[in-house]
Design a protein that fits this description.
With 556 residues, this protein is α/β, with parallel strands linked by helices. It has a seven-stranded parallel beta sheet with strand order 3-4-2-5-6-1-7, with helices on both faces. The protein has a seven-stranded parallel beta sheet with strand order 10-11-9-12-13-8-14, with helices on both faces. A four-stranded antiparallel beta sheet has the order 16-17-15-20. The structure holds adenosine monophosphate (AMP).
């Protein structure tokens, strides 16, 4: 079965890119252009100016980088740059120049990031050697222009990337000054996640008859999404695989489809998941029909529980037992926000998206376009996971008690029952069963990622927090004993709710939670401990007043 291609599908080859670029894209495992690439690349190759509304995560970097690379001279390279890309932050300067370098490798494109904070000497030497594309923050670009070390005479293309962010960061005057100095006949591209009037003004002043592109108008077919619960987790890139594992453990899907952007990512993630004991299969455009059929057979037959796929490869699949769809990356466009397949034909399901901190804007765009709320939730903690695994063990035992013939095991239990209390015997048996199911493996906490409009700029602050191993609490954390537990029906979210509600402590500042039968342990910032204790003493949890105090024994 060959997945149907959408009628409007365009390949990179259709976009008339040169063979070197096509080779690079294929080597990176990109299967087809994203919507922004499909719309932006042809007019850019024709030399048109472009005003694009697109956020990080849409593939906008390649949308301008590929046309930029098409422009660099094949022979007779001068030392002066052909293109200048202005970006708001040092992180983005590095990221964009790395992307251009990757795409332009076969063309031998020379790319240089310029940003403040880096020794200027190294930048001067690189500029002297000659570059084709400069990716700079406006302040540093202006420094080099003033020193005459960055020459703009040869520029054929100027890109303003994340223009709204640049204005928010106070770069408006710098940008105006730079654009005074660039050749009149250059091509200008402006990308911005939002289009406030100031961006419009900038576009009117510096763009000539631009093509306008706006993403985010797509909507999901009526009714399709309504039965699907949508959730997102914001996770730093390095912890994504672990976060996915955590979410899958807690959700325990019957069958899940996990979408990745590229073939390489599909292969890597499949390998990682299999290494962690899941039964995952890969599906992507690099596989032949026979391989695909085998994969689908294993999924339908229940020997695989996870299908990891690129969007293209999974198009048109309908998997009966699917309960979960996971977007391992924020999709490049709202209309590929994949929830339809779980929600189809009245089936209920869960759609989960793992976003990186810098991609939070794309979540908002998708919310607006699909008119569906996406709840950004806190990743399950190790304690949640343990509680969930114990629950699964209990469910499995219950099933066995109700259905299995247990008589053959009497010979084990009876002699032990003479020697020990039956409760003790049961506890030991449960421990073995629990561990035997692989459910008791060790896990590390996954650090919180900052979410919010300034997520990107808070990243380094978050990294600092992670190193301390705490959750943003200078001065460390402390554990509180709360005298109600599972026997009273307490779940982690009840404790989080009570603490956040009563003490105004932010949810993300509450650390690991462990729930035992008759008590619970909750980690909170030391600085907030007294306030939390006072607040909880004055309130009820699951309708009960509980003892609340600091845990007496720190070491377990
Ligand atoms: P951007 O919106 O430019 O930050 O890109 C988001 C991510 O999508 C980056 O990790 C790119 O490597 C990836 N990407 C861009 N274009 C494609 C494509 N056509 N297929 C798969 N991945 C892509």
């Amino acid at each position: 079965m060959r997945p149907a291609r959408a009628d409007d599908a365009t390949t990179f080859a259709d976009l008339a890119l040169c063979p070197e670029l096509l080779g690079a894209l294929s080597a990176l495992g990109y299967e087809e252009p994203t919507p922004i690439q499909r719309e932006a690349i042809p007019p850019l190759l024709q030399g048109r100016d472009l005003l694009g509304q697109a956020a990080t995560g849409t593939g906008k970097t390649a949308a301008f980088a590929l046309p930029v690379l098409e422009r660099i001279p094949r022979h007779d390279r001068r030392g002066e740059p052909t293109a200048l890309v202005l970006v708001p932050t040092r992180e983005l300067a590095v990221q964009v120049s790395e992307a251009i370098h990757r795409y332009g490798r076969e063309l031998g494109g020379r790319v240089l990031p310029l940003y403040g904070g880096q020794p200027i000497g190294r930048q001067l030497r690189a500029l002297e050697r000659g570059v084709d594309v400069v990716v700079a923050t406006p302040g540093r670009a202006l420094d080099h222009i003033a020193r005459r070390t960055l020459r703009l005479r040869g520029l054929q293309m100027v890109v303003l990337d994340e223009a709204d962010e640049m204005l928010d960061m106070g770069f408006a005057d710098d940008i105006e000054a730079i654009l005074q100095d660039v050749p009149e006949d250059r091509q200008t591209v402006l990308f911005s996640a939002t289009m406030p009037p100031r961006i419009d003004g900038m576009a009117r002043r510096h763009l000539h008859d631009p093509v306008r592109i706006q993403l985010g108008r797509a909507t999901s077919p009526p009714g399709e999404a309504s039965l699907v619960r949508q959730r997102a987790y914001v996770v730093p890139r390095a912890h994504k695989a672990a976060a996915l594992g955590r979410v899958l453990d807690v959700e325990a899907p019957v069958a899940a489809l996990v979408f990745c952007r590229t073939r390489d990512e599909v292969d890597q993630l499949t390998e990682t998941l299999n290494g962690r004991g899941y039964r995952a299969e890969a599906l992507h455009g690099g596989m032949d029909q026979e391989q695909r059929d085998r994969v689908m057979g294993r999924l339908r037959g229940g020997t695989a529980e996870l299908l990891v796929a690129t969007d293209v490869a999974a198009r048109g699949l309908d998997i009966e037992q699917l309960t979960h769809v996971v977007n391992y990356d924020v999709p490049c466009a709202p209309d590929s926000y994949r929830i339809g397949r779980v929600g189809r034909a009245g089936r209920q399901g869960v759609a989960i998206t793992l976003a990186e901190p810098r991609e939070h804007r794309m979540l908002k765009t998708i919310e607006r376009a699909t008119k569906q709320r996406i709840a950004v939730e806190k990743l399950p903690t190790v304690a949640d996971l343990r509680a969930r695994r114990l629950e699964l063990t209990r469910a499995a035992l219950r099933e066995s008690l109700l259905g299995d013939d247990l008589d053959p095991f009497r010979v084990v239990v009876e002699p032990l029952a003479d020697e020990f209390d039956v409760m003790e015997v049961a506890l030991a048996a449960v421990k073995l069963a629990h561990e035997g199911s692989g459910a008791a493996t060790g896990d590390d906490e996954i650090p919180e990622a900052p979410v919010g409009p300034d997520g990107e700029r808070r990243r380094s602050a978050a990294a600092g927090r992670d190193r301390r191993g705490g959750r943003g609490a200078p001065g460390g954390t402390t554990r509180l004993f709360v005298g109600v537990g599972r026997a009273a029906g307490v779940r982690p979210q009840d404790l989080v709710g009570a603490i956040a509600g009563e003490s105004q402590l932010a949810r993300r500042d509450i650390g690991a939670i462990e729930i035992a039968d008759r008590f619970s342990l909750v980690e909170v910032p030391e600085s907030a401990a007294e306030k939390v204790i006072a607040a909880l003493r004055g309130s009820a949890i699951k309708g009960r007043k509980a003892t609340v105090r600091r845990e007496r024994y720190e070491a377990r």
